[in-house]
TrEMBL record:
PANTHER family: AUXIN EFFLUX CARRIER FAMILY PROTEIN (PTHR36838), SLR1864 PROTEIN (PTHR36838:SF1). Gene3D superfamilies: 1.20.1530.20. The chain crosses the membrane at residues 5-24, 31-50, 56-78, 90-110, 122-142, 163-181, 187-210, 222-246, 252-270, 282-300. It is found in: Cell membrane. Belongs to the auxin efflux carrier (TC 2.A.69) family. One of its GO terms (cellular component) is plasma membrane. InterPro entries: Mem_transp_PIN-like, Na+/solute_symporter_sf. This is AEC family transporter. Pfam families: Mem_trans (PF03547). Keywords: Cell membrane, Membrane, Transmembrane, Transmembrane helix, Transport. The lineage of its organism: Bacteria, Pseudomonadati, Campylobacterota, Epsilonproteobacteria, Campylobacterales. The keyword Metal-binding does not apply.
Length: 301
């Protein structure tokens, strides 16, 4: 796992340095993100979905993890109300506190800690716990920020225009067909999928900004407290009290629930005109904090 964290640090650092040296501008960054979201990640999701072993126990873990992740957002919403924060800050806290970076950051760490079989499971886990819930809630957040109208049509369009969701559905459909696809046919797809993690981490590095931390350090600390302490603590207690201890499937879930806020949630917050500085600083500092917090969570299991 330490080697995986080291690799994550290196790719993010390279992206951040490229940004500081102006080796990568907005145009190049846009091309990278387009390649990532429309080709590399769908290839990774399709390949992982088709080859992952899915059973009732795994889906049960996903649902409990979703409950624990959302609990972090609910707690932050309550704290924001008690402290009488600005509504935009409360929405930012609760929305970003509910969804972690389960794919870009979580996948390589799970792969390093638990192996490729669990990395394939992460791809489906990400869509159930992060991707699809965000697709449902994004129109609501945008409408609360005055940037659109919340409707079932908006949710449906967002889902079925997403290459990531379509890749998941396609992988599941082929998985259900009683016809085995030769592994050789997946070789180009696997090669494309291998580029997803380094490109995603590089893109995170390019987008990172540490300027907002000084201005929003109190709310940033509060957000990360809810996302990276409360949510995994709820999962830890549920597993310890309800299931008697951790196996590798629950360890995968703990790593994912303990992830810092996801970049896409920050992008939605910024687009909705909410607390953009808080969103950016929470993403940047959360990534740095995760390199210490995730190994600690694993150590106590």
């Amino acid at each position: 796992m330490l080697l995986a964290i080291y690799s994550v640090c290196v790719f993010i650092f390279i992206g951040y340095i490229a940004k500081l040296l102006r080796l990568v501008g907005d145009k190049q960054s846009g091309i990278l993100l387009g390649f990532l979201l429309n080709f590399a990640l769908p290839a990774q999701i399709f390949n992982g979905t088709y080859h992952a072993h899915i059973d009732i126990a795994f889906l049960y873990v996903c649902l409990i993890s979703l409950f624990c992740s959302l609990s972090g957002g609910v707690v932050l919403f309550g704290i924001g109300k008690i402290l009488k924060l600005h509504p935009h800050s409360i929405l930012t806290l609760s929305f970003m506190g509910a969804f972690g970076n389960t794919l870009f950051l979580g996948l390589p760490i799970v792969n390093g800690a638990l192996g490729e079989d669990y990395a394939n499971k992460v791809i489906i886990y990400d869509q159930i716990v992060t991707g699809i819930p965000i697709a449902f809630l994004a129109p609501l957040i945008l409408s609360l920020g005055g940037k659109g109208v919340f409707s079932a049509k908006a949710i449906g369009l967002r889902l079925f225009r997403s290459p990531l969701f379509l890749a998941l559905i396609s992988g599941l459909i082929l998985k259900l067909i009683p016809l085995e696809i030769p592994d050789d046919l997946f070789i180009p797809l696997k090669s494309l999928a291998l580029t997803a993690t380094p490109v995603a981490l590089f893109a995170i590095g390019v987008q990172m900004s540490l300027k907002g931390i000084k201005e929003e350090w109190k709310l940033t600390s509060l957000l990360l407290f809810g996302k990276m302490l409360i949510a995994p603590l709820v999962l830890f207690l549920i597993v310890l009290c309800g299931f008697g201890g951790f196996n590798d499937l629950w360890r995968m879930a703990l790593i994912e629930v303990a992830m810092p806020p996801v970049v896409s949630a920050g992008a939605i917050v910024i687009k909705a005109g909410l607390n953009a500085k808080l969103a950016v600083s929470a993403i940047a500092f959360g990534i740095l904090l995760s390199f210490a917090s995730v190994p600690l969570w694993l150590a106590i299991t």
